[in-house]
Fold GntR family transcriptional regulator.
Amino acid sequence: MCRSADRDRGAGPSRCPERGVGREAETDVTDQAPRYAQLAESLKRAIAEGRPGIGEQLPTEHALMASHKVSRHTVREALRLLSEAGLIARRRGAGTVVVARETPAAFTQRLGGMEDLLQYARAARLRVLATSRVDGDPALVRRFGLEPDTAYLQITGLREGEEGPPVARTVILVRADLAPGAIALSELRGAITDWIERQHGIAPARIEQAIEAHLLTPEEAEPLQAAVAGAALMTRRRYLDAQGRIIAVSESVHPGDRFSYDMVLTREG
């Protein structure tokens, strides 16, 4: 136990540790968390309090090194944790900025049947980034199993929840004779296949889905506000009508911490 009298003795240096030295007190020595994890938690608390606010820049690496008295490696590892938590993102020309005050909740999709698959598109809003007409592109025909003699409308966009960074980057190819026009697409709410059913009376009779692990490319990471080469989940779907013709296909890339599947299987017979 350290007593005040120990400080007053002139027999040598004090055995009592000083508290509150520097910008913030050091974590108790019994805390075994790595220093970068401690720094990440400190920055998380500051972000949650609006210091800095959403859209504002984080201090530079040098500033964080100086204010927290840590190495560059410690700062970079702490920032990596914040990026994986969906709180910060690097933006071209703007440095590292805050994109959320709290870690966004992962979007969970329950899989029990076709309606569960369609529910995802209905629940996560699509923000369209670009559209183009595709007609017989050999690479896309192979990638999505398209009908080579059929034209499609390609839609690139972001799936978004109520708040926080996007849930997924999505590429959708809709058969051109069924695709919504520019105005209808801009006003679209819910799943494109629901719109097609309302307008054309054609509904998916079968949905084929493939799921695979994926690493985010720079093209995907930037709009998703995620780290390049970060772990992601890719889903690819083909929506077919009763005659087996393609209505639409989609490919969605979800950062690993923003999406999960909840699958329920029931024994038949």
Notes: The two ends are 71 Å apart (CA to CA). Strands lie at 88-91, 95-98, 107-111, 125-135, 151-160, 168-175, 206-215, 231-240, 246-255, 259-263. Confidence is low (pLDDT under 50) at residues 1-30.
